[in-house]
Design a protein that fits this description.
Largest sheet: none
Number of domains: 1
Number of strands: 0
CATH superfamily: Winged helix-like DNA-binding domain superfamily/Winged helix DNA-binding domain
CATH topology: Arc Repressor Mutant, subunit A
Length: 62
């Protein structure tokens, strides 16, 4: 299922924010594996470059 994005933020920030929300809501926990870049790209309907940027952005936030 493709996700829909409607914010003025860059797409990679929206994806990263979604992962942060899942972490805050304890849907994702420490030690859980995130989807591969390829799977994230397919699932969200985004380019692999955008998926990489989202992960780099998350990493920079700690």
């Amino acid at each position: 299922m493709k996700k829909a994005f409607h914010s003025d933020d860059h797409l990679y920030i929206q994806v990263a924010d979604g992962f942060e929300k899942m972490i805050a809501d304890e849907v994702l926990r420490i030690g859980d594996k995130l989807p591969s870049v390829r799977l994230l790209s397919d699932e969200y309907g985004i380019s692999m470059g955008t998926a990489f940027q989202a992960y780099y952005h998350l990493e920079s936030r700690g």
